[in-house]
Amino acid sequence: MKFYTRLFALGIFLLFLSNETRSQEVTALKLNELQAMMDKPSDKVKVFNFWATWCKPCIKELPHFEKLNKEHKNVEVFLVSMDFIEDLDKKVKNFVQKKQLKSKVLLLNETDQDQFINAISSKWSGAIPATLIVNTNTGQKDFYEQEFNEEELNQLIKRYIN
Amino acid sequence: MKKIQLLSLFLVLGLFINASEVEDGYKIGDYVSDFSLKNIDGKLISMSDYKDAEGFIIIFTCNTCPYSKLYEQRITELHNNYASKGFPVIAINPNDAKRQPGDSFEKMKERAKAKKFPFPYVLDETQNVATEFGATRTPHVFLLDKENDKLKVAYIGAIDNNSRNPEAVTEKYVEKAIGEIKAGKSVSKTNSKAIGCTIKWREA
Predict the structure, then answer these.
(1) A162 or B183: which leads in pLDDT
(2) A86 in contact with B at a CB cutoff of 8 Å?
(3) What residue segments make up the domains of chain A, in order of their start?
(4) Average pLDDT across chain B, whole number
(5) What's the CATH number where B189 sits?
(6) Strand locations in chain A, DSSP E?
(7) pLDDT attached to residue A7
(8) Cα(first)–Cα(last) distance of chain A, in Å?
């Protein structure tokens, strides 16, 4: 009996461990933390894509950003979720797990949208998908409130890679 | 040398074209043109139909966007509270049903019936009205104030400052603006931004 209990406990432990290693981390952060990430000097071109699990056109373009992150060594993609913080565990983490997203996934934990949208870019009306591209070496920082197809995104990123 | 001058001219022009794309649509203080759009009951709706209106709460919204859904009850309350005070709601669906089948005219009728919309819910099939207004997302509010029989844009943006939770709202942008207009004051906050679903424009 004791043996089975131990085996059961071990099984649970292993299950827990495997889940932990497989699942991607989603970091919830505040506006000032996100801004610090944007401004932090880096040799990589930083691409911040604003998306949400409920946004169909966002989900459609996610694979292009994943590909960009995977194929360009000097590009780092951040997928910034606009989902509500209350949906972090059930919706966002599940989605990230299901789609096996490899880019860094963040969730902006702010409710005053008027404030954070303007702080991120005066060009942003609040519609998503939207994308911010930053090259801290050249000082380039451009905001795009639009959807991208693969070709458009590949063409665009060339402007930022030295 | 000439070539360089020509090139710089193009570059400068390019900048202007880019800038104007961003600035498209009505701004605060602009006079707006009337429209004629089909309501869910099949009748055409124009702002000139409302003889007693002192203004309008024009809201670009749709059936499918989660943010639009979050605001349905609040849009209904706005209409119920302000139509009798001269500011009725007209809800406009700008989405292309080919790209978003859930936003078809038939689905609009279903949604309006299920949610008992007390306000007109019209379809902007050509997307000309959304383009003219410069709407980018759903929901997107344009508060219009009648001035010498012309309609002027008084406020553009969100309904309030908490999409998820009506209880947690601390700023009711639209209500505050109407209050200020009715008190003969100028609107203190004329623009606000909010997360929303991008309008599903027709594919060229």
Answers:
(1) B183
(2) yes
(3) 26-158
(4) 91
(5) 3.40.30.10
(6) 26-29, 45-51, 75-81, 104-108, 127-128, 130-135, 140-144
(7) 61
(8) 65
Token couple for B126:
């050509």
pLDDT computed for residue A93 by the predictor = 96
B-proximal residues of A, 46-85, CB under 8 Å: 52, 54-57, 82, 84
In a domain, B13, yes or no: no
Residues of A in contact with B136 (CB under 8 A): 125-127, 145
Residue B49, domain extent: 26-198
Enumerate the residues of chain A whose CB falls inside 8 A of the CB of residue B103.
none
Closest Cα of chain B to A22: distance in Å? 30
B58 located within any domain: yes
Beta carbons within 8 Å of A162's beta carbon, 6+ residues apart: A135, A137, A138
Q: Which residues of B touch A112 (CB under 8 A)?
A: 161
Residues 6+ away with beta carbon under 8 Å from B95: B62, B64, B103, B138, B199, B200
Q: For residue range B2-52, what is the model confidence (pLDDT) as tens digits?
A: 555 555 545 444 444 443 344 589 999 999 999 999 999 999 999 999 999
Contact B193 A124 (CB under 8 A): yes
Looking at chain B, how many residues does it have?
204
Q: Give the number of other Cβ atoms within 10 Å of residue A96's Cβ.
A: 20
* Annotation: CATH topology of A26-158: Glutaredoxin (3.40.30)
Per DSSP (E only), the strands in B68-178 are 89-93, 121-123, 137-138, 140-147, 150-157
| Domain count across chain B | 1
Nearest to A153 by CA among A162, B20, A144, B195: A144
Report residue B124 CA to chain centroid gap.
Answer: 11
Which chain B residues have a beta carbon less than 8 Å from that of A126?
Answer: 136-137, 158, 193-196
ipTM of the complex: 0.82
Report yes or no on B8 lying in a domain.
no
Question: Does residue B11 lie in a domain region?
Answer: no
**B174 touches A at CB < 8 Å:** no
